[in-house]
Amino acid sequence: MASTDGGHRHEHAAGSGAPLPAHATPFDNHSVEHGPESVVRSYYELVDANRVEDMLALFDDQAIYRRPGYEPLNGKSMLRSFYNGVRVIEHGSHQITCVIKQDRSAAVVGCFEGKLKSGSQVNVRFSDFFSLNEQGLITERDTFFFTPSI
Q1: Is there a contact between 58 and 46 (Cβ–Cβ < 8 Å)?
Q2: Is residue 16 classed as helix, strand or coil in its secondary structure?
Q3: Within 10 Å of residue 71's Cβ, how many Cβ atoms?
Q4: Which of 37, 51, 53, 98 is the most exposed place for a label (fewest CB within 10 A)?
Q5: CA–CA separation, 47 and 96 (whole Å)
Q6: What integer is the mean pLDDT of 81-91?
Q7: How far apart are CA 59 and CA 75, in angstroms?
Q8: Which tens digit of pLDDT belongs to each residue from 4-63?
Q9: What are the strands, taking DSSP E only, across the chain?
């Protein structure tokens, strides 16, 4: 369950109304039965809150992340380096408009609005494609942005 406070989302333990401990993730409350939509929604909540280590708990150790302008990020170590330094985003939030799921895969359409480390504001539509393993961990993620490139 989530609540908002001044535009910030706070996760609560299911049914308790109490905030989750700092080391807990919304993923802790989601089992594989909830499927990929639950996992990917947790991903966006955690990345927007800059909870990198909790967000990384959603990924398989050998996960691969592909996005325009970067070499593939292979494994949690590269993901950690990306989110803790390489990523050009200073802060922002993802608004999910559509999640399409099938088996252990999910396609997401949404909009990201935020501030880049350069100081520029950004508002861009995106699509993400996630694959999960049998344990419900993300094994692959591919991101595409709706911006002119060719």
Answers
A1: yes
A2: coil
A3: 8
A4: 98
A5: 13
A6: 90
A7: 9
A8: 343 433 333 333 333 444 444 444 444 445 589 999 999 999 999 999 999 999 999 999
A9: 2-5, 8-11, 59-66, 73-74, 89-102, 105-116, 121-132, 138-145
Domain residue extents for the chain: 2-145
| Helix (H) or strand (E) run with residue 62 in it | strand 59-66
Residue 115 CA from chain centroid, whole number: 17
Residue type, 134: E
Residue 30: CA count within 13 A, CB half-sphere: 22
Per-residue b/e over 75-98, b at no fewer than 16 CB within 10 Å? Answer: ebebbbeebeeeeeeeebbbeeee
Structure tokens at 121: 């504001």
**Contact criterion met (CB below 8 Å) for 113 and 90:** no
Q: Are 51 and 25 in contact (CB under 8 A)?
A: yes
DSSP annotation of 20: P
Closest Cα partner for 114 from 128, 94, 98, 97?
Answer: 94
User: What are 99-132's pLDDT values in tens digits?
Assistant: 999 999 999 999 999 999 999 999 999 999 999 9
User: Which two three-digit tokens encode residue 25?
Assistant: 């993730």
Q: Three-state SS for 34?
A: helix
